[in-house]
Sequence to fold (411 residues):
Amino acid sequence: MSEDRLVDFEARIASGALIEAGDWMPEEYRRQCLRLIVTHANSELMGALPEREWIPRAPGLHRKLSVLSKVQDEIGHAQMIYRVAEDLGRPLGITRGHMLDDLIAGKAKFHNVFSYPAPTWADVGVIAWLVDGAALETQGALLRTSYAPYARILRRICAEEAIHLKHGEDIVLTLASGTRAQREMLQGALERWWQPLLHFFGPPDDQSPNTERTFRWRIRVMTNEQLRQSFLRKYVPKIRALGLKIPDPELRQDPASGDWLYGDPDWNEFWRVVKGGGARTEERLQLRRMTREQQNWVLEAMAGPTSAA
Amino acid sequence: MAQEMAVYEVFGQERKGEPHRHAGSLLAADGEMALLLAQELFCRRKEYVQIWVVPRAAIHEATEGEAPLGPDPRRSYRSGEGYRETVQKWKRFGGDGHADRA
Fold:
């Protein structure tokens, strides 16, 4: 009886058990995990693009190498996460090819922040410090997900993201202690990224499409708002310590709870962007389409006659 | 196409003398390609001194929950835990049972 299996599954989850790829799981658990994991993989793949644009323009060889290495890491993360997703998707007939097709057709979601331009070098610093900092909040919480193959690969990914954060912190600290023009450039970048950063964690909990089951099954363990608050507690004091002004006149800390209260970050803009209407969404998807077409011969050559074994 | 490639499991040894541990998996057409991709994916920071790649199809997995897998409290005599009373017993002879640690 599948009812019994569901009861047994939920009891296992409640007792802290972790689910492996070959274990029985409700189809809805599989689908929810798959949706979360594919969105993460897509975000790593698309997330490499804004910084990639800066590889030829990075100020100095050392910075060029560190941006290059970060971009390489993000693509590597995408590879590892798509692999986890493939194992989940197999019983549903969903392959990596389908996932990439959906992505380039604009049918799949990826994080809102990767739809925005990175017009200055300070944007590269802010992305690596604060966007990767935000990503570490969500991914750090997901280390406790009930789906074990994802949790395992996240350990490696989080360790690398923590290095990206240091790379970004170093760029930001350099600019913050630089000339007036550099500090203004940094302030400008923060102003561009603040709202997308608040959006990054997703809508307030009462408007989030995540179901109660997502948490009962421990697919996710922290809500959007809990993650956003964890981010604000860590980074608002640091941003202010650098002498930067956060572009939100309503931002203040509730002395009782320690929570940060913030002005409405325009959730319509968030929905517009995640549905594919971001300033750079189409251009970056177009780049993915082009590379998929142009590099397909490599895949075909690799999977050629030698793959018969 | 990528779908025709096989899954390889990657195992890495962090230091000489340590066992290889599972690192993750990847898709490759053959072992040589799997090794090359494993180095690109899992060894960018010199995490390992040695790696293995194994076709997943070559791994035979036991069914979870079937004997002899998992903890078995009835067989305490097979573990050190089953011999905790030696500490008490040594006291009759003036020892604390941990003399080897002193």
Observations:
- The two ends of chain B are 64 Å apart (CA to CA).
- Chain B has two helices and three strands.
- Residues 2-58 of chain B form a domain with the Ubiquitin-like (UB roll) fold (CATH 3.10.20.520).
- The longest strand of chain B covers residues 6-13.
